[in-house]
Amino acid sequence: MVKPSTFRATAWDPLLIISQIVTLQCLCYLSASLITLIIAGLTGADITLDNLFNFREYRGDTVFGWTLAAGWLANSAFGAFLLLHIVERAKLCLDFTLTFHFFHLLFTSLYSQQVPSHIMWWTLNIVSCCLMSIGGEWVCMHREMTPIQLGGGSSSEASSSRSNSDRNKRKTSSPTYEMLPLEEVDEGGRSL
């Protein structure tokens, strides 16, 4: 009997999806809070929840508004790396990014007691969504495309039919991967 894979054993796991959404939301807000705390400390502004959830703070006519916008974009770049560790799948990054920004829209609307009406806030969140999604997909695809390393150098491999020079050449070259280089495979598909 074939043992089933433990990674994503089921296609629909609501508990996993909900926990990933909550974790992503909490960690993104934690990092945004730390960035906003640094910005407020450097500019001398008051530290309030308005800096995160009041859309009126993100204004294009003040330096503090532009600084908050830059901090939010930096947070979305950090969010791309959070997607790498929480979601781990490139094809799910857009879904989780849109979910995060949808909940941010809800939280901002509830906190401000109206749907955001400033074009700066909408532009900032669209750019943030694109940056987080594309960045998350890129880092996840980069990880997914790395070669799978197999445990090389074991005693059973050392006692194989390879000559000493071939073994020494392998030890000084790159680590053992799933596939052999083409020059080491003859036409029949056997390794030399």
TrEMBL record:
Localization per record: Golgi apparatus membrane
Region ranges (Disordered): 150-192
DNA repair recorded as keyword: no
Topology of this chain in the membrane: Multi-pass membrane protein
Sequence intervals crossing the membrane: 21-43, 63-84, 96-113, 119-140
Main location: Golgi
Cited Pfam families: SYS1 (PF09801)
Cited InterPro entries: Integral_membrane_SYS1-rel (IPR019185)
Keywords for this protein: Golgi apparatus, Membrane, Protein transport, Transmembrane, Transmembrane helix, Transport
Similarity annotation: Belongs to the SYS1 family.
Alphabetical list of PANTHER family matching this protein: PROTEIN SYS1 HOMOLOG (PTHR12952:SF0), SYS1 (PTHR12952)
Name this protein carries in UniProt: Protein SYS1 homolog
Lineage: Eukaryota, Fungi, Fungi incertae sedis, Zoopagomycota, Entomophthoromycotina
